[in-house]
Design brief:
- Helices cover 41% and strands 14% of the residues.
- It has 396 residues and is α/β, with parallel strands linked by helices.
- Helix 2 links the parallel strand 2 and strand 3.
- The N and C termini lie far apart (42 Å).
């Protein structure tokens, strides 16, 4: 069940009419020509997307040597990239051709106007979103406002991950979580939401779980959520800069409980960062806030590179390439497009999901009320308010 201000019919109808919702009045751009000799591309990952997609990128290079001679990969913190791109564009010295991003840097980039509009300007070079994406992923594509293409999708959570050796009573409500955190100071942990998927999903899921007046409005509708996060903060020793550090502390036994989502449960256990014995609890009134990662193109990209990047993006959304995004469960399930079952994934991925996945995840995904994240402007506000109001509250 999808709960949002847009129904699926509204989203599909808008996309069918305009290539993507909200861009009916924009003119199509002339399609850039493919280069006469191969180009080098620079891809920056601010969301961990390469863990899911690197084999597909490598396949493109192998299959298209006449277009790409080499792809240089790099990683950067999501909060820092939009400012870096804005400065490069102002100086006309852009050295990044494609960005792999979550909704955090995507939102900030939309606000700063650094992303190249893709729809309907370049719709002729790209797949039609309304034809390829599964329904919830299609709604997540509308989040990009025509300025990016979704490459992986996750009906995420929030869920609560805990060490059963340290947590004897399984929490199933937000009140349970807060009571446990107060009784066990400094044992609950989560990362700064601006650079952590599970933390963002937790923050955006709380208004639904707590029954706030308007879960879509962090300015005026989150009174219960901001108060809850402030109380919870009094039990938290510090907020790491990313989820990886959270999992390391959970795995070491230094911390005992953290908000999580499906992939961040499966993958660290598969990698041995977190013991396989660590458990996950869902809430009695469980909901799902969806998550996704995107391919975005910075403005001012050279035309010959743009032609190749558009072709590369189209390639990444083919079912065979989407199947590799099951990976080791990092963004479970992973594929954003329709008709990519686990049976299409590499054997290694199937084995990891069989061993470290949780059978009840698929049932939860199919039955829990499902919501979209905040829109870009509201998310930027919520992340900023968390930094200013919650991030400074810690256990003494």
């Amino acid at each position: 069940m999808i709960k949002d201000k847009f129904s699926r019919r509204t989203v599909l109808g808008g996309m069918a009419a305009a290539g993507l919702s909200g861009f009916a009045g924009s003119a199509r751009a002339a399609m850039p020509s493919l280069p006469s000799s191969p180009v080098r591309l620079s891809v920056v990952d601010v969301a961990g997307t390469l863990a899911l997609t690197r084999p597909a990128f490598d396949a493109y290079v192998k299959q298209h040597p006449q277009l790409v001679s080499h792809i240089e990969y790099s990683k950067a913190p999501a909060p820092e990239l939009p400012g870096k791109l804005k400065a490069e564009q102002a100086a006309h010295r852009l050295d990044i051709d494609l960005v792999l991003t979550g909704i955090d840097a995507l939102s900030a980039g939309l606000k700063q106007d650094i992303w190249l509009p893709l729809f309907p300007q370049y719709a002729g070079a790209l797949p039609n979103p309304s034809e390829i994406y599964q329904p919830h992923a299609l709604q997540m594509q509308s989040f990009a406002q025509g300025h990016a293409l979704e490459v992986v999708f996750c009906p995420a959570g929030p869920l609560i991950e805990y060490n059963p050796e340290l947590v004897k009573k399984v929490p199933t409500t937000t009140a349970d979580v807060l009571a446990w955190a107060k009784a066990n100071p400094k044992k609950f942990i989560y990362a700064r939401p601006e650079n952590s998927g599970p933390a963002r999903i937790f923050m955006m899921g709380l208004p639904y779980l707590l029954g706030d007046t308007n879960p879509r409005d962090p300015r005026k509708g989150w009174d219960k959520t901001w108060a809850y996060l402030a109380e919870l903060g009094k039990t938290v020793e510090y907020y790491p800069s990313g989820t990886g550090a959270v999992m390391q502390e959970l795995g070491s036994g230094l911390r005992a409980m953290t908000p999580t989502q499906t992939g961040w449960d499966i993958n660290p256990r598969a990698l041995g960062v977190v013991p396989a014995s660590v458990e996950v609890a869902k809430f009695d009134n469980q909901i799902i806030v969806c998550d996704a990662q995107y391919m975005a193109v910075p403005k001012d990209i050279k035309p010959e590179k743009l032609a190749v990047v558009l072709d590369l993006m189209k390639f990444m959304l083919q079912p065979a390439q989407q199947a590799v995004t099951y990976d080791e469960g990092y963004f479970y399930p992973g594929p954003a497009v329709k008709n990519v079952p686990l049976s299409m994934a590499p054997k290694s991925s199937q084995e990891v999901i069989a061993k470290f996945g949780r059978p009840w995840y698929d049932q939860m995904i199919a039955t829990a009320p499902t919501y979209m994240p905040l829109n870009a402007d509201d998310l930027v506000y919520a992340l900023g308010r968390w930094d200013q109001q919650i991030g400074v509250i810690t256990a003494s």
